[in-house]
Amino acid sequence: MAKNASHAYGPPTVTVKGRDVRLRTIGVVLLAGLAIWFIAANTDSVTIRLWVPTVTLPLWSVLTVTLLVGTAIGLLIAHRRARR
User: Fold this and answer.
1) What residues pair up with 13 in beta bridges, in sequence order?
2) Distances (CA, A) of 78 to 14, 42, 51, 62, 67
């Protein structure tokens, strides 16, 4: 099983199969897996009204674009905060 190998000077980690893995990495992998599962489970077509045109697309494509745009915005904000 995983053993806590957290040090006072580094990020919290757990040991999995002899390797130290950051808890943040495990969280990101779990969230990515849940997002992929959610996208794959929603395959019906939906009608989306953009300002003028109305478009019919599979819901999975809309969710994928939304996930990618949200990730890009989050990374941009994190990068800008790190520069301050």
Assistant:
1) 22
2) 25, 30, 30, 24, 16
Supply 7's token pair. Answer: 């040090």
3-state SS assignment for residue 78:
helix
Side chain identity at residue 15, one-letter code = T
Average pLDDT for runs of 10 along the chain of length 84: 58 79 87 92 92 92 93 93 84
d(CA 3, CA 34): 25
pLDDT of residue 14: 80
Pairing of strands 3-4, 54-58: unpaired
Identify the three-state secondary structure at position 14.
strand
Euclidean distance between CA atoms 62 and 59, whole angstroms: 5
> Considering the entire predicted model, what is its pTM?
0.68
Sketch the domain layout of the chain as residue ranges: 1-41, 43-84
